[in-house]
Write a structure and sequence with these properties.
The structure holds two protein chains of two kinds.
Chain A (H helix, E strand, L loop, with lengths): L22 H16 L6 E5 L14 E4 L5 H11 L4 E7 H7 L1 H10 L3 E7 L34 H8 L3 E6 L3 H13 L4 E6 L11 H4 L4 H4 E4 L6 E2 L5 E6 L4 E6 L18 H8 L8 E8 L5 H8 L8 H8 L4 E3 L4
Parallel strand pairs in A: 1-2, 1-3, 3-4, 4-6, 5-6, 7-11
Antiparallel strand pairs in A: 5-11, 8-9, 9-10
Helix pairs in contact in A: 1-6, 3-4
Chain B lengths: L5 E9 L4 H14 L3 E7 L14 E9 L12 E4 L2 H7 L8 E5 L5 H6 L16 E5 L1 H8 L7 H5 L2 H12 L5 H10 L4 H20 L19 E7 H16 L3 E5 L6 H9 L5 E5 L3 H13 L3 E6 L1 H6 L1 H10 L3 E7 L16 H6 L9 E3 L5 H16 L2 E7 H5 L1 E5 L23 H5 L22 E3 L14 H16 L19 E6 L3 H13 L4 E6 L1 E3 L5 H6 L3 E6 L4 H10 L4 E4 L8 H17 L1
Helix pairs in contact in B: 1-6, 4-8, 6-8, 7-8, 9-10, 9-15, 11-13, 19-22
The chains are: A alpha/beta, B alpha/beta.
Chain lengths: 337, 618
């Protein structure tokens, strides 16, 4: 592929079948645009998904695509990456697919650091099965299966990823294409398992569940976009910051304007600092902004390379098999005299 | 009848007594002596059960002889028991008159108690009718290795080699092979090497010179009539691994073997992982589902994906098998069957997953099924399974079992150079010839397979998934007529494999005899031997061994109809019998056994005789 590709070249002729207003549309457009910008080769790009609304994604990408079974996309993508480590493999999953039925596979793909870019569309609800609560639904969520409100505590996808040993953890918002695109580019560049949680709105079953911080009017005050090496500032005028309280070992918001400007004490984002990542992931309103961007990143060997080094496949000769077959005590029976 | 004799020997002791090592070394010396043999390692399920208990008994049985040997033997002629528990567990297996060598040093009051036996068991009359020889194995071993510098408990670990010395003498087997094995194995540990050699020699010398109340018998087994060739010993797990590696070479594809540890399938994972020279990438997945899914992903990427498990694990893989069927990807699923249901009898053998293999999925979801007959056959079956998987773009189930994986037989080393290369049936289409989606589902007229287009191929990007596909374009389709067409296509595709399968011929006997004994899997040996003996007795009986269970060979119905009766012995409640009723409208006589133990020759032979005399009487 020599010609310069555009976002359109990454779109298929398939009719997109998400509900009107679904956040998935924005994510899809963002991905098509980002891959064009990144100069991705469609023939070397694969989207692997499980089951759920988000998992229809591969049908709409003019790359290779595999719509698999519920929860198993990370396992299938692991096998794919082992068979051809040169492919760019994106895993598309959701909060039910990736954290409920497929939680085990996600955990192991992350801890092994398989070279996959894993996008978890979190809408805190089951969409395709018609609105049941999910493992990320807040306590008390009323749904067809929990008419009295859910009684279990939700889990945080990024906390899960950090606990599983993920070395790349990032967050974005479906409708903030510019920021989400930059997160995709970073994930694309990462050689191990890149985990991206996308806050995605389901207008039918869980509308506006993230509105408290995705609303553009309030975004500056309710979001903090973290960048490695830069101070953790937010607010319209970058007039607020986060610093570590040395007594409680938690983050606290400080004022960065006026006479009591505490800018000097604001923490500089260090994406290799796991303790900081832990704190940033846990921030939520109303007292704190939600952290977005690359929250955590450390280098580590990708699983598929270790495997390949272990077992170089000699395809050109049966010598290895013959040698192993004969590498034991042999005896000959001569033909009869 | 003037055929050669055979002797069945069983070694039994605690897990820590080194019984499996002793058995495998005796098998090696047997091969050096030119006898044919078959082995049956009978492990306890517990890793290190409390010492001296009956559930901690580990046994190794070998049948050796100067004729063709196809089973590890119905009943041990010779038992070597290292402790009371081993004697107690093995005694019911022995025929009257069997020879029992016991390590009397371990027959202490405490050990009798642990085994739940009375302290005067030996003189209680329970051993009347057997020839019992009491040997002070522990004491004599300790004396023999006194100079090695090992402490007493380490020194006593050599008693398996002391016992081996005795047995080698009884069978006039050479010691040299075992000696060189000890030299090589313990080359880095002088004391242990010296102790084992000293114990082996001491046992041998003791057997030759000791004055015992009852003389140690000697067995004279002339070499068995092997076809000329070059041989080695092989277990089913080894032969399966070698077959997989050879298949990858023959197909010129990388192989990725994805498995989750489970008894009794793990020996295949271990062997492939331990021997990187075979070139097979192994992946220990987080669970059974991940294992098959990774294998599917590997095949989607252009490698040969293989997954291996046992019944309970196969059950977990079921949904993913459906995905491989509908996405039409090659995949090999190996089931090392064990006793069930549920956790069942993990270390014991059974053939009860045939329904699961053939019928056990949601929807109309046909998969080809092949069964392995004996350890060496695992090699050829693995190649055949891979050949079908890539030729027809389908998952294939290969049935073996715990007994086959662990049993060792002599094996004529095959020439890989003489095996046909494995070819995919359809060429990769050229981009631009047609719309890509049409190309991805352009089928071979003969095999109905679609081309194996893999990511990385320029201009052929297509989407595939578990949703029903349009027959021509592969796009998602909910069209009723299309689903009918696709369901029929999937059935026809598997049925078309019949054209590749050789016509079924009897293993022994001819079409049209009075009785056909039809078997599949590891009961091969017992049926083969029973039919051989029955024919020598003058019965009109044939042995038919099925490798292909789905589809069945096209001539099978006609062949089986030519017999007066059809007998189906199986280690289940009648699963092949049901299949034959279903597919061939045949009503076979069943012989079913589900005790966790291999089928016995005598069990089949008795039934053949009964059927034969009933017929004569009528």
């Amino acid at each position: 592929m020599n010609a310069v590709l555009t976002a359109k070249d990454f779109a298929t002729d398939q009719e997109v079948r998400w509900c009107p207003g679904c956040g998935d549309y924005a994510i899809l457009r963002c991905m098509q645009k980002t891959l064009a910008e990144a100069g991705a080769q469609p023939e070397n790009t694969v989207f692997v998904s499980g089951i759920g609304c988000s998992s229809r994604f591969p049908y709409y990408m003019n790359t290779y695509g595999f719509h698999t079974i519920h929860g198993r996309a990370p396992a299938i993508a692991t096998g794919l990456k082992l068979s051809n480590p040169d492919l760019d493999v994106w895993v598309i999953t959701g909060d039910g697919d990736g954290l409920s039925i497929g939680g085990n596979h996600l955990l192991h793909a992350l801890r092994r650091n398989v070279g996959l870019k894993i996008l978890l569309f979190n809408n805190e609800i089951y969409g395709l099965t018609k609105g049941q609560y999910s493992p990320t639904s807040t306590h008390g969520t009323r749904s067809p299966s929990t008419p009295g409100g859910s009684i279990d505590q939700p889990l945080s996808p990024c906390q899960f990823a950090l606990g599983a040993g993920a070395r790349f953890i990032a967050r974005g918002i479906d409708t903030d294409n510019k920021h989400l695109g930059s997160v995709f580019l970073e994930a694309n560049r990462y050689t191990g398992a890149a985990f991206v949680e996308i806050y995605q709105n389901c207008p039918v079953y869980n509308d506006a569940v993230f509105a408290s911080f995705t609303d553009r009017q309030k975004a500056a005050e309710t979001q903090i976009h973290v960048r490695h090496g830069e101070p953790l500032l937010f607010g319209k005028e970058a007039d607020k910051g986060l610093r570590v309280n040395p007594d409680s070992l938690t983050l606290e918001v400080v004022n960065c304007s006026g006479p009591d400007d505490a800018r000097g004490s604001v923490k500089i984002h260090d994406e290799t600092n796991m303790a900081l990542a832990q704190m940033l992931i846990g921030l939520h309103g109303p007292d704190f902004p939600v952290a977005l961007g690359v929250i955590y990143r450390t280098d580590g060997p990708a699983f598929e390379h270790g495997q390949t080094i272990h077992h170089p496949p000699p395809l050109d000769s049966t010598a290895g098999v013959v040698q192993v077959m004969r590498d034991v005590r042999l005896w000959k029976v001569p033909p009869p005299d | 009848m003037n055929e050669g004799a055979s002797i069945v020997v069983r070694f039994a002791g605690d897990s820590g007594d080194g019984v499996q090592l002793l058995g495998s070394q005796f098998a090696a010396s047997t091969s050096e002596s030119g006898n044919d043999f078959a082995t049956f390692p009978d492990f306890p399920a517990e890793i290190r059960a409390p010492v001296g208990t009956t559930f901690g008994v580990s046994a190794f049985q070998i049948n050796l002889g100067s004729r063709r040997i196809v089973t590890a033997g119905d009943q041990p002629d010779v038992l070597i028991a290292f402790n009371p528990a081993a004697l107690k567990v093995s005694l019911p297996l022995l025929p009257a008159g069997a020879l029992i060598l016991i390590n009397i040093s371990a027959f202490t009051k405490r050990n009798f108690q642990k085994a739940g036996m009375v302290p005067d068991f030996i003189s209680s009359g329970a051993l009347d009718g057997f020839q019992v020889i009491q040997l002070e194995m522990s004491t004599l071993t300790a004396a023999a290795v006194a100079d090695s510098g090992l402490g007493r408990s380490d020194a006593l670990r050599s008693k398996n080699f002391w016992a081996l010395g005795v047995v080698l003498w009884m069978f006039s087997h050479p010691k040299s092979g075992v000696e060189s094995w000890i030299e090589a194995k313990f080359s880095s540990n002088d004391a242990v090497r010296q102790a084992n050699l000293a114990a082996l020699n001491a046992g041998h010398a003791f057997a030759e010179t000791a004055e015992l109340p009852a003389a140690l018998p000697r067995f004279d087994l002339p070499p068995a009539p092997y076809p000329p060739g070059e041989y080695r010993t092989v277990t089913g797990a080894q032969a399966m691994s070698l077959g997989l590696a050879a298949a990858a070479q023959l197909a010129q594809r990388r192989m990725i073997f994805c498995s989750y540890p489970i008894t009794p399938a793990s020996p295949i994972l271990h062997y492939l992982s331990r021997v990187p020279k075979l070139g097979v990438t192994t992946f220990q997945a987080e669970d059974e589902i991940a294992a098959i899914c990774a294998a599917i992903g590997a095949s989607y990427g252009g490698a040969l994906g293989v997954t291996s498990s046992s019944g309970p694990g196969i059950a977990l893989k079921t949904e993913a098998m459906g995905l491989a069927i509908t996405t039409e990807l090659p995949l090999l699923i190996i089931n090392s069957q064990r006793g069930g249901p549920s956790t069942g009898l993990p270390t014991k053998t059974e053939q009860s997953d045939l329904y699961q293999a053939i019928y056990g999925r949601n929807a109309d979801a046909p998969i080809p099924v092949i069964a392995v007959a004996n350890p060496g056959d695992s090699f050829h079956s693995a190649i055949e399974a891979v050949r079908v998987a890539v030729r027809h773009m389908t998952p294939v189930i290969l049935l073996t079992d715990g007994y086959l994986n662990n049993a060792a037989w002599p094996w004529e080393i095959p020439s890989i150079a003489h095996i046909e290369p494995i070819l995919t049936s359809t060429e990769i289409p050229i981009a631009g010839e047609d719309s890509v989606s049409h190309l991805a589902y352009r089928r071979d007229a003969d095999t109905l397979a679609r081309p194996w287009i893999t990511p990385g191929m320029d201009g052929l990007m297509y989407r595939v998934g578990g949703l029903e596909k349009d027959f021509e374009t592969g796009d998602i389709s909910y069209d009723p007529d299309n689903h009918q067409v696709m369901t029929e296509l999937r059935a026809e595709k598997i049925q078309s494999i019949q054209r590749l399968i050789a016509d079924q011929v009897p293993e022994i006997g001819a079409p049209g005899e009075s009785l056909a004994v039809v078997g599949w899997g590891s009961t091969y040996g017992a049926i083969w031997r029973a039919v051989t003996v029955a024919r020598m007795e003058g019965h009109s009986v044939a042995h038919i061994q099925l490798r292909w269970l789905n589809p069945l060979p096209s001539n099978l119905g006609e062949l089986l109809a030519s017999y007066g009766h059809v007998l189906v012995p199986e280690l289940n409640m009648g699963q092949l019998a049901t299949l034959l009723r279903d597919k061939l409208n045949l009503d076979p006589i069943q012989l079913n056994k589900v005790s966790g133990q291999p089928l016995k020759i005598a069990e089949v032979l008795d039934r053949i005789r009964t059927l034969s005399s009933a017929k004569t009487a009528a």
